[in-house]
């Protein structure tokens, strides 16, 4: 058996506030993916609106509905003429609140919305966190979604892996802010390394689409990457400043086999949740007994 899937991530620079230009850019990448026979395309976090808002009014003005918004509708039109599925990061308007969300779109329209659980820094001023992790059955396999800072919380990817997800789509906006070191000697950023660790720990494919550029003094890191189930990149990382379209052919049957790390070890079956109970051992107290004098 062989379940070949063609996965792509697009790395480019959305612009804050430019919903029309951002929509056009997303459509161009989706059209390229459809023309190249891509099964799953991942676009960056907040690709619809840009990232660094200056005010609540700006965040509100660039928000849209996850089912009927213009970027989702435009990408659905592209997917409708092909077998391509697309995950795009959007500034989602949901009733009276907004979410930093990822929408999974297929040939018949939007299929699922994931709302970022772990909001990074100023995102907490503009968005409310989500509350669940959807895993979606597509014709080629089961796909989950997390967004950017979610990777720093291993429970999210593990929960999706336990739900049978084989590919994790990661729209992201990795930033240089707050980092002692931005890249290592090989050009990897920490996001790449965390994605590789997540793939290796769970036997899943990680498809990370980062953005590039500088937006209101915030610098984005690029380094988009597709990681195989064994934890090693199969495409990328891309450069820090360049537009990139990374494509990888992945056999999901091979990915499933990576969970069997030795003839006697399996990443899921060997879990011991009944024993994951940390026990704190207190430091020994100093003795209160008066020492007995020693004879001369």
From TrEMBL:
Keyword Hydrolase: yes
Keywords, comma-separated and alphabetical: Hydrolase
The organism's place on the tree of life at top rank: Bacteria
Pfam families (UniProt xref): CN_hydrolase
GO MF annotations in UniProt: hydrolase activity, acting on carbon-nitrogen (but not peptide) bonds, in linear amides
Domain CN hydrolase residues, every copy: 5-252
Annotated PANTHER family: BETA-UREIDOPROPIONASE, NITRILASE C965.09-RELATED
Protein name: Hydratase
Originating organism: Candidatus Amunia macphersoniae
């Amino acid at each position: 058996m062989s379940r070949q899937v063609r996965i792509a991530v697009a790395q480019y620079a959305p612009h804050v506030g430019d919903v029309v230009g951002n929509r056009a850019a997303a459509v161009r990448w989706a059209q390229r993916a459809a023309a190249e026979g891509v099964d799953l395309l991942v676009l960056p976090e907040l690709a619809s609106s840009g990232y660094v808002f200056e005010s609540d009014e700006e965040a509100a003005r660039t928000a849209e509905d996850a089912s009927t918004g213009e970027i989702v509708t435009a990408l659905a039109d592209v997917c409708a003429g092909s077998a391509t599925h697309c995950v795009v990061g959007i500034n989602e308007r949901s009733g009276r609140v907004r979410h930093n969300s990822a929408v999974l779109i297929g040939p018949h329209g939007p299929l699922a919305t994931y709302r970022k659980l772990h909001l990074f820094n100023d995102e907490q001023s503009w968005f409310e966190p989500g509350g669940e992790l959807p895993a979606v059955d597509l014709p080629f396999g089961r796909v989950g979604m997390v967004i950017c800072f979610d990777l720093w919380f291993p429970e999210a990817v593990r929960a999706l892996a336990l739900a049978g997800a084989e590919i994790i789509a990661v729209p992201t906006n990795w930033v240089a802010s707050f980092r002692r070191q931005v890249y290592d000697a090989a050009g990897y950023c920490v996001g790449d390394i965390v994605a590789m660790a997540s793939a290796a720990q769970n036997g899943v494919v990680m498809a990370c689409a980062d953005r590039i550029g500088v937006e209101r003094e915030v610098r984005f890191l690029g380094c988009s990457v597709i990681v195989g189930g064994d934890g090693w990149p199969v495409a990328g990382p891309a450069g820090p400043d360049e537009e990139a379209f990374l494509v990888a052919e992945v056999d999901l049957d091979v990915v499933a086999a990576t969970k069997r790390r030795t003839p006697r070890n399996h990443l899921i079956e060997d879990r011991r949740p009944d024993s994951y109970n940390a026990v704190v051992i207190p430091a020994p107290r100093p003795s209160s007994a008066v020492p007995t004098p020693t004879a001369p």
